[in-house]
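Human:
Class, as today's exercise, you are to examine the entry below, and be ready to discuss the fold:
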Amino acid sequence: MADNSDSGGGIVLAILAVLAIYNCSGSPSEDEQQVASELGISDDEAADLIAEYGTAESVIEDHEDDTREPFDEDAAKEAAEDDLASENYDYSYGCTSDCSGHEAGWRWRADNGYTTPGNSNSFYEGGQAFDDAVDDKVDEMRNAYEAGEDPDH
């Protein structure tokens, strides 16, 4: 007959092995999750950085300058409108004689925040020119931001 006195020990070893495997392949640690969240990277990348740097705090501290707030479209538009409000009509739609209708439309848009048809095409075109100039300025700010420059706004 076989001796079954060791069968209890075998079960305990099997349970310990399963627990060890589960703990080794489980979810990311709190530090890995923190680094992943702070730097916008995967948990695996965070684990590699923590292994390289030693602590989550060291990883985050070393990479603080690498993370930036996203480009703020609204703040850029407001800054562009503020900058352009002190300027005159930019002649982007041309003029037939003295440009007073375009200038009035530009000024209306700068002062009131929206374009309106007014009493003439030139008035509307002046407001539209202001809107176009705002869009161009925001595009310039976005391009500069994406090139690594700090925003002016």
Observations:
- Residues 121-146 form the longest helix (26 residues).
- Helices lie at 7-24, 30-39, 43-53, 56-63, 73-85, 100-112, 121-146.
